[in-house]
Amino acid sequence: MQIRSTTAQDLDVFLGTVHTAFGRFPETPDPDGGGLWWSALEMDRSLLAETEDGKAVGTATAYSFELTLPGDVVVPAAGITAVGVLPTHRRQGVLTEMMRYQLGELRERGEFLSVLLSSEGGIYGRFGYGPATYTRRMTVQRSQGAFRTQVRTGAIEVLPRSEATDVMEQVYDRYRRTQPGALGRPHRWWALGAGMPPMTPAPRYVAVHRDGDQPDGYATYVLDSGTLTIDEIITTDDAVFAALARFALDHDLVTEVVFKQVPTGHPLHWMFADFNAGQVSGEMDWLWMRLLDVPRALTTRGWLTDGEIVLDVDDPFLQERHRYLLTVENGMAECVETTRDPDLELDVRDLGSLYLGGTAPSTLVRAGHVTAHGSAAKADALFRSERPPHCLHWF
């Protein structure tokens, strides 16, 4: 078996292989060329695993994204996706070899972070990825949707999805630069209608909130049989979020509103007069994180608390183990190798879970994944983020 990089000429083979791996059939092409999940693939970042006779049996690819870290730091990140192996070739080491090849390739490119969305929670931990952001669904019966306090609604305009691309792109870009865990949506994704709604041309309405002439928030939604389902509410202002939520709850012909993507710790629950009005379901991991260069990753993100900690980081998949002294002063970090006794011993996958501040080190200590020599409270204080990380971009 060999792993090789692809070119544009390999697109049909790549798509045929990954669809077969997932037991899916290719979508019918859009007459206007948009709306296909694979339309934004970067074939120069894609891989094929082939047998000795040249038959493609596995695929993997990466998107060139930007990721926002704590401290409003925006950095490049490789978005790993379309990872699949034909059913006839599973349990033969194909996936392991592709992951090893891909991580090496990312390092050669000088990349220090990679992220993915995991189709199965038990797969990617062994390759060094750990869940780093979480999301949940909230369903609210309209009859129970009264708010505890008056909401400043502002000016809201409803547009069809086809007329709202520029506004959505503008608002989303402002939002993602201040939200830890958010991925950038490259312009070509908007232009191609790649990914999932609301990126695609699928029928949606877009409620645009404005402060004067400036759009400062939007909600994309669809109404079917009395259920108004919101793909996402995008804004940097909690008051604007409340106004868009209120708009949805006051919509005619609606019996319930489903918020598909609610961040952990979001104040929406507290906005209702009845705290139990929002029924949470579908709580799940979303963005998984992999550190490829630990010192660079730790010194790039912002930090809220000064202090120092010694981390003993094991990376069994890449057969590496290093001990680092992380020192934070005035929000800036320094990370060097050390022989000092560790405060925490952890797998690189667990460091990925801690990295954005969405998982407390003490939680993983209690779970038995991380060994703390002394109290984990210092690590909790260091790794926390000003706001919970959240990602709602699908790729």
UniProtKB/TrEMBL annotation:
Domain N-acetyltransferase stretches:
1-154
Record-listed acetyl-CoA binding positions = V83, G84, V85, R91, Q92, G93, V94, L95, T96, S119, E120
CDD domains to which the protein is assigned, alphabetical: NAT_SF
Q: Is Acyltransferase included in the keywords of this UniProt record?
A: yes
* Pfam hit, one: Acetyltransf_17
Source domain of life is Bacteria
**What are the UniProt keywords, alphabetically?**
Acyltransferase, Transferase
Q: Quick check: keyword Acyltransferase in the entry?
A: yes
Q: Catalytic positions?
A: Y124 (proton donor), F395 (proton acceptor)
Family (UniProt): Belongs to the acetyltransferase Eis family.
Per UniProt, subunit arrangement is:
Homohexamer; trimer of dimers.
- Which NCBIfam families does the record associate with it? PRK01346.1-4 (NF002367)
**Which protein, by its recorded name, is this?**
GNAT family N-acetyltransferase
Q: Which species is this UniProt entry from?
A: Lentzea sokolovensis
